[in-house]
Amino acid sequence: MTRRTDIDVRTVTEAEFPDWNRALNTGFLQPPAVAAEQLEARRRQFVPGRLLGAFDGDRCVATFRSFDQEITAVGGTLLQADAISNVTVTATHRRRGLLTRMMARDLAAAKDRGDVVATLIAAEYPIYGRYGFGPATTMTEWTVDVPRARLDPRWAAPEDGGRIDLVDGEDVRKLGPELHERLRRAQPGAVSRTDLWWQARTGAVNLSALPWTEPCYALYRSADGQVEGLASYRADDHWGDAKQPLNTATVDWLLAVTPDAERALWRYLCSIDWVQTVKSGWRAPDDLLPHLLPDPRAARITTQADWLWVRILDVVRALESRAYEGRGTLVLEVVDRGGPAGGRWRLEAGPDGASCAPTTESAHLVLDVGELATLWLGDESAVRLAALGRVREERAGAARVADALLRTSRRPWCPDMF
Ligand SMILES: CC(C)(COP(=O)(O)OP(=O)(O)OC[C@H]1O[C@@H](n2cnc3c(N)ncnc32)[C@H](O)[C@@H]1OP(=O)(O)O)[C@@H](O)C(=O)NCCC(=O)NCCS
């Protein structure tokens, strides 16, 4: 076995990019060969200095990519984030500390750049807590049993005077980005999207090793002609022995900036002839969907899991830049073994703003940096984390104070996988 120190962790050059992609495909259990078209598309994600690889001799055995992203804090402030993706270690070289080395290097660079947080979507729950990440948003997928929902079978168009049209990929590339901008600026936990995201989701480029198939795109316009919602979905072709249609429509993604748009798009998706089942795709846990149905039990939760993981790099900016509806003071003792967020911080917050600074006052609440990330976007309760032993109250009632300050009326959500 090659000794740990013989494996070089370094930034990847353009010349090494094909080999790095082969390792990436292998790590994600895809066919290792990278088609020329795929490589060309992925080159657009190549940012010098932001791709890391581990090399055993001249063979790439681990991959790691980060890129600039904006994340929306509670209240709508956009913060600079270090988004992490394409993390793999080839099975022959696992559990020798390669991920740990790449992560340490990337997080140190992110802190130096002034990024407030790092973000990622974790393939498996146990991987990233050790690096100071905590789950900060949740996703829910519903499976709707359409006949059970008791919707009016004669439905033909949105009741609010709006309309739904099927559009093509070019329309989506034209209209989607602005719609998404509106959504993500108002949605805590949402992140910025690149042009490449839209191109890849509409078949203009193919980043994946799998062949592209075109979905259907449904566009919602309000009564006064405003574009307020857009959904991409695919349907299968499944009939029962009694010659009855049993088709499933699966939503790839759905964006709605008004409740009317959300209502109209779900209503449309649950009214397509032959479709007996609608799979919602990865939604916010408090999506309106189940309660838009006369019988909400027709929407069964089929997946509910952690989604966006956040690593706080700058406690002061993270806490000062979010909004607070309540008013209060909290002294937080953040444990971050050698990391940049450790220390005792005094947060004074209210509807008119917040200040956060290091302090020597006694702590009210002691918590790991990962738990701070979990509380930061307001998705989780400090009282619940205290019951789990994941935060410790040093002052009676401090967890309730934290909840009154940090929790939000609607839950955070990240619509993106990256
Ligand atoms: C996850 C992955 C990148 C880990 O790489 P690695 O180089 O083996 O990780 P390290 O050796 O640096 O591990 C550091 C620690 O994390 C633990 N760890 C790593 N991956 C883990 C996993 N999937 N589950 C549980 N623990 C894990 C290691 O056991 C080790 O623990 P220790 O410090 O107590 O010994 C690698 O297993 C992999 O490529 N998996 C498949 C693709 C994948 O899931 N990528 C992540 C996409 S988000």
Describe the protein.
- By secondary structure, this protein is an alpha+beta fold.
- It folds into 3 domains: 112 residues, Aminopeptidase (3-Layer(aba) Sandwich); 162 residues, Aminopeptidase, CATH 3.40.630; 92 residues, 2-Layer Sandwich (Nonspecific Lipid-transfer Protein, Chain A), CATH 3.30.1050.10.
- The strands form 3 sheets. It has a 7-stranded mixed sheet with strand order 1-2-3-4-5-14-6. A 7-stranded mixed sheet has the order 8-9-10-11-12-7-13, sandwiched between helices. It has a 5-stranded mixed sheet with strand order 17-16-15-18-19.
- Strand 3 and strand 4 form a beta hairpin.
- Helix 4 crosses helix 5.
- The structure holds coenzyme A.
- The site of coenzyme A has 17 residues, from strand 4 and helix 3.
- Coenzyme A binds next to strand 4 and helix 3.
The counted number of beta strands is: 19
At the fourth level of CATH, the homologous superfamily of the largest domain is: Gcn5-related N-acetyltransferase (GNAT)
Averaged pLDDT: 97
State Rg: 23 Å
Instruction: Catalogue the unreliable spans.
Output: none
CATH C-level category of the largest domain: Alpha Beta
The biggest beta sheet is recorded as: 7 strands, mixed
Following the backbone from N to C, one meets helices and strands in this order, namely EHHEEEHEEEEHHEEEHEHEEHEEEEHHEH
**What CATH architecture of the largest domain would you give?**
3-Layer(aba) Sandwich
Strand content: 25-35%
Termini Cα gap: 33 Å
Tell me the number of structural domains.
Answer: 3
